[in-house]
């Protein structure tokens, strides 16, 4: 299955799950809680107010070597958007990808997602707990804070 097939399939439009594709084109669904959505929207607001010349996208689809992954929130610079517009899925990762950690997420899964985002060009990945604690990672590992977003 391709991402365009997922978007066009009317049976998948109203599912209460986050949908991604694995490397075999199979759908992977993750249930999202209202708490998860609340944290996601708070991060989006934070990025919207702190990012200088970019765009904030929630549920941002990114084509990776292991299928289409969907960052909970992403920040894209104007330069990134000039190259990619709003192509779906992005063939390159936005500069900042954010994952809100759900109880169903394993450390291994998050490590793999970070590696996939970095391999597609992300400069930072934020892992955010459902309590709102933010951990910032660059390609070389955990960082003290963001180099892209102030505050």
State the main characteristics.
33% strand; tt1808, chain A; 8 strands; 6-stranded mixed sheet; 4 helices; alpha+beta; two-stranded antiparallel sheet; 151 residues
CATH class group:
Alpha Beta
Mean pLDDT, to the nearest integer, reads 91
Query: Residue share in helices?
Result: 25-40%
Query: Rough shape?
Result: globular
CATH architecture group name = Alpha-Beta Complex
In brief, what are we looking at here?
The protein has 151 residues and is an alpha+beta fold. The protein has helices spanning 3-8, 34-50, 78-84, 107-119; strands at 17-21, 27-31, 54-64, 67-77, 96-100, 124-128, 134-138, 141-143. The protein has a single domain (32-143), classed as Alpha-Beta Complex (tt1808, chain A).
What's the structural blueprint in terms of helices and strands?
Layout: H1 3-8, E1 17-21, E2 27-31, H2 34-50, E3 54-64, E4 67-77, H3 78-84, E5 96-100, H4 107-119, E6 124-128, E7 134-138, E8 141-143
Parallel strand pairs: 5-6
Antiparallel strand pairs: 1-2, 3-4, 4-5, 6-7, 7-8
């Amino acid at each position: 299955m391709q991402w365009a097939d997922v978007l066009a399939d009317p049976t998948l439009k109203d599912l209460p799950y986050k949908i991604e594709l694995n490397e075999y084109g199979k759908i992977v669904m993750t249930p999202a809680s209202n708490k998860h959505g609340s944290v996601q929207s708070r991060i989006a607001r934070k990025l919207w107010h702190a990012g200088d010349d970019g765009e904030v996208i929630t549920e941002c689809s990114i084509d990776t070597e292991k299928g289409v992954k969907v960052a909970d929130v992403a920040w894209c610079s104007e330069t990134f958007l000039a190259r990619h517009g709003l192509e779906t899925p992005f063939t390159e990762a936005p500069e900042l990808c954010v994952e809100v950690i759900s109880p169903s997420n394993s450390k291994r899964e998050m490590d793999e997602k970070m590696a996939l985002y970095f391999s597609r060009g992300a400069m930072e990945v934020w892992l955010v707990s459902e309590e709102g604690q933010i951990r910032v990672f660059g390609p070389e590992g955990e960082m003290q804070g963001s180099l892209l977003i102030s505050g």
